[in-house]
Structure formats: C-alpha cells, structure tokens
C-alpha cells in the first residue's frame, strides 16, 4: 500500500511539474540557451528526482528494513 501512495504522490507531482515546465518553456520565460536558466532548469528536475529517490529509500527501509 505504501508504494501505491508513493507512485500516486510522485506520479501526480510529475504531471503537474511537467505541465508547469511546458508552459514556462512555451511562454519563453526560461531560455535554455542561457547558462543561468539552464542550471536552474536542470536543478529543478534533478531535485525532483533526488527527492523521489530519497523517499523510495525511506519507504524501502520502513517496509523491508
């Protein structure tokens, strides 16, 4: 059951984040040719992935540890 909550939480979060990124890129608010914007853009994506990995490790430790 915990994994279902995890998948829902990060799945819906990914959908919302991708929609936000789509609109930001589409509007031109973030120019990926600009080094500063590119660092922040990939930092946000990397942070989301990092958080998902940390949560997965915590859930694994709680269930199987």
Describe, in plain words, how this protein is organized in 3D.
By secondary structure, the chain is an all-alpha fold. It has one domain (2-10, 20-64). 86% of the residues lie in helices and 0% in strands. The chain has two helices and no strands. It has helices spanning 2-27, 35-64. Helix 1 (2-27) packs antiparallel against helix 2 (35-64). The longest helix has 30 residues, at 35-64. The protein is elongated, with a radius of gyration of 15 Å.
Outline, from the CA principal axes?
elongated
Please give the number of β-strands. 0
Number of helices: 2
Helix content: over 70%
Average pLDDT number: 95
- Structural class estimated from helices and strands: mainly alpha
Defining traits:
65 residues, 86% helix
Question: How would you summarize what this structure contains?
Answer:
By secondary structure, the chain is an all-alpha fold. Helix content is 86%, strand content 0%.
Would you spell out the secondary-structure blueprint of this structure?
Elements: H1 2-27, H2 35-64
């Amino acid at each position: 059951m915990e994994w279902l909550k995890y998948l829902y939480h990060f799945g819906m979060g990914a959908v919302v984040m991708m929609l936000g990124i789509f609109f930001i890129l589409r509007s031109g608010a973030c120019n990926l040719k600009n080094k500063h914007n590119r660092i922040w853009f990939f930092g946000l994506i990397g942070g989301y992935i990092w958080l998902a990995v940390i949560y997965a490790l915590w859930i694994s430790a709680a269930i199987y540890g």
